[in-house]
Amino acid sequence: MIDYYSEGNANKPKRKVNKKKIIIVTCILLALILIGTVSGLYITNTDFREFMDIYIFRKKIEENNMASIEIDEETNPSIYAYDKYVTVLDKSALTLYNSSGKKEAELKVQISTPMYDTNGSYCVIAEKNGKKLYLIEGNNLVWEKEVEGEISRVSVNKNGYVSVVLTGTTHKTVIVSFTKEGIDLPTIFLSQTKAVDVVISNDNKYLAYAEVNALGSLIQSNIKILLLEKAQTDSENAVYYTYTAPENSLVLKLKYTDKNALICMCDTGVISLQNQTQETLLELQEDKIIAMDIDLNGHIVRVEEIRDSLFKSSANIRIFNITTKKENVYKVDSVPKEIYTHHNTIAIHLGTEIHFISTNGWLIKKYISTQEVSDVVIGNSIAGVVYRDKVEVFGI
């Protein structure tokens, strides 16, 4: 009797084991496991993340190891940052430098006491309590204006639309606005109230302003949103929505998100206005909150003081995501002297240390100085650490 099964197996060629392929696959699997483990620890373990940032990713930088811009402390120049430039305004010359400290451009502006706002590649610079106004895109001067009244506030959206709050006219406040091309938009006259801030949405459809009436014994703040297109033909009926804040609640700052939500920072908390509805994002009921800002891309930052002992305090930098409502926390060992915010970056000024962190609460750069830092400026991809006689610049 013939065993067909055995005969068939006997005739089959034996398959050779590819040891090299097994080793490669095993190494890839081990590498993926290692990467997953390290990533998990980096995300969840603060001490491990700090170790990796300093010793592996080399995020620690020191004074005198960066590109430097010399400044004349006797002339008291104004230092600012936007887009990919650090700017030095001195004697009507606005000089733009890149992250290597190289001079990129020099623009002539008749400004002695500047006030700024920036969005994307645009920067608006104006004479505080003066009349001169300039719009810059990248390293080019787009237009200049001279307005009637005294400039108290300026803002620019990501498309180059500019709004200006004016005082010192026959009205309590006048708001003028311009397109990127410098074309006038409808003027708003306020006879009884004072405007504290004004912004144009990033789709150019809405203009929002916060006004305060302090004539009586109580402070009353309102926020009004106008339809810009309708305001050009029917200014009296252009108000799309009005929010009346609680009595003695002072509106401090406005900011539009890319999704047309108007974020409003008050001395009592933060609210969001969109589609004629109001949402409370944060309420300030804690005495431990010592600073707050909304000048970030879809986030709110708060500084919470922690009393560790009778003579020592630390701080939590709390970063609230407006969309997800989740909060990230970055801890520092002392109370910040100041925080600076721009786009997705927060700079924490601790005296001789500056921590640059992202909105996810992770360290971008830790700057160590041998002397007290005077100021910090942040652009989209550049930072400057300001001293009396120099500015150290680097990419972020």
Provide the fold topology.
Layout: H1 4-11, H2 19-44, H3 46-56, E1 60-62, E2 67-70, E3 78-82, E4 85-90, E5 93-97, E6 103-108, E7 114-119, E8 122-127, E9 132-137, E10 140-146, E11 150-156, E12 162-167, E13 173-178, E14 184-190, E15 194-200, E16 206-213, E17 220-227, H4 228-231, E18 239-244, E19 251-256, E20 262-266, E21 269-274, E22 277-283, E23 289-293, E24 299-307, E25 313-321, E26 327-332, E27 338-342, E28 345-349, E29 353-358, E30 363-368, E31 375-378, E32 382-386, E33 390-395
Parallel strand pairs: 1-30
Antiparallel strand pairs: 2-33, 3-4, 4-5, 5-6, 7-8, 8-9, 9-10, 11-12, 12-13, 13-14, 15-16, 16-17, 17-18, 19-20, 20-21, 21-22, 23-24, 24-25, 25-26, 27-28, 28-29, 29-30, 31-32, 32-33
Provide a descriptive summary of the structure in words.
There is one protein chain. This protein is mainly beta. Helix content is 12%, strand content 50%. It has four helices and 33 strands. A five-stranded mixed sheet has the order 1-30-29-28-27. A four-stranded antiparallel sheet has the order 2-33-32-31, with no helix packed on it. A four-stranded antiparallel sheet has the order 3-4-5-6, with no helix packed on it. Helix 2 crosses helix 3. It is globular. The protein starts with a helix and ends with a strand. 32% of the residues are buried.
